[in-house]
Specification:
Mean pLDDT: 80
Distance between the termini: 30 Å
Number of helices: 4
Length: 72
């Protein structure tokens, strides 16, 4: 599984990092230390990045059949 499919948005990486780091480390890194000006300054370039989804091209015939309790 590639990184883009596993973490389609920055918020997924933030959530993963929050789970992996000790609480004190997460609070220090996420706080921006002091007036939190660094958080805003770092967040602005990330918000400017646009990641448009890839669109499937060509013929697409999905199979919507499913089996539940042995019946299709």
């Amino acid at each position: 599984m590639d990184l883009q499919n596993r973490y389609p948005a920055l918020s997924y990486l933030v959530a993963r990092a929050r789970c992996r780091l000790p609480f004190f480390a997460w609070e220090y890194l996420a706080s921006g230390t002091g007036a939190e000006q660094l958080v805003d300054r770092n967040r602005a370039p990330l918000d400017a990045v646009s990641l448009p989804p890839k669109v499937a091209h060509g013929r697409f015939d999905p199979d919507t059949t499913t089996t539940i309790f042995g019946r299709t």
